[in-house]
Amino acid sequence: MDKKPKLKRSDLLNKDDIWNAVSDVLLESAYQLENKVAYEAFTVLQYYSEMESGGHESFLRWNSDHVEGVGITRYLEELIGVLDKIDAHEYVLIERKYGKEMSDLYVALENDEIDEKEFYSVIEKADNEYYHLNEKLRELLETYFVKIHTDLIEIIE
Questions:
Q1: Residue 157 belongs to some domain of the structure
Q2: Which of 7, 9, 47, 99 is the most exposed place for a label (fewest CB within 10 A)?
């Protein structure tokens, strides 16, 4: 993300407008390491999006290339760091408790080293804890996006 996209202030009148604009910018930039704010925001948006579309299995599947590239330990540190930064402490606990184990089981399942029941039993526990929080993460992300949107978007009159 070399240059910030420009948007009119009149296009960013409420949280939904900001959510959509920030999401669009982040999806275009993906895991851009040179912009820390964009990288962190994309990390947590990707987590939220995949969790809402298919739980931890979807999250692991669609993020596997990036996780493999940076390593699960670093990835979890980054994700947990951003979740903590936005006060998503209950989600931090879930990922600390299950993240590494789920990733290891996912890799083992992909390599036909374990029965899928073993993988899905852990996924089910983690997903249940996540969904029990009733989309608190969406609200925390909205607040975070409002806070950072001017770091990612140039606002014009």
A1: no
A2: 9
